[in-house]
Amino acid sequence: MKLEAYAWTDPGPVRDNNEDAFHLDEDAGLFIVADGMGGHAAGEVASRLAVETLREMLSGDELDPDETRLDRQVGDPGDLLRERLRYAMNQASARIRREAVANPSWSGMGTTAAVLLVEGGQAHVAHVGDSRVYLLRDGRLSRLTRDHTVVQQEIDAGRLTPEMARRVTHRNYLTQSVGYHGPVEPDTTTRNLEVGDIYILCSDGVTDPLDDPRIAELGNEADAPDLAERLVRDAIAAGGEDNITAVVVRVVDDK
Ligand code: CA
After folding, report:
1. Does 3.60.40.10 match the CATH number of domain 2-252?
2. How would residue 255 be classed by pLDDT, with cut points 50, 70 and 90?
3. Where are the domains of the chain?
4. pLDDT the model gives residue 219
């Protein structure tokens, strides 16, 4: 299996600091975007701690013996991987909370986390918060994550349309975040890899100013090596003021 990955980040035109963090490792098949929040630069700390913890826990070469045994019992390696993702997210959350308790100026810090873990010909996705993962396959864009926001809950309940939701002031209030909310329940999903697939991980700095049709358009216009930068630049051009981060992963070979 061969993957190519590209990333671009920008603090945006308004903010001095960048509270987004990302990680890409084509060999380990691990890709992460985290969008931190909290005063006194705590957002930067939270997103960095999340990325660090997830990387430590998920880029190990092989499952440890206990997990391998469990794997045989479970029968479906995908279940085990999704379980590892959930466990790693909760470890990250616990670590951020410990740091926040030890450093009161960081109290209340938290972060989103969107993770793509590629293994065994499959792409496993897990997320907490409103950073998103998309799949662009055969020119069609699908969103693989559902935002953990109050606004998304309202959409699900039929009280808001997605169009109305784009104009709500507090559209980024999260129902879950890593760290701040304590134990988390990440959503997970799995796709079989296909050659030519493009996975996009991004912070809301991309998805606030750009709607899905525009992201699909850019995905079809730009080559994968340029796409992350194009998304970030387009988000700024469309009026984005937040920190903006995109990670693009292309499946070159699925063997
Ligand atoms: Ca953000």
Report:
1. yes
2. confident
3. 2-252
4. 97
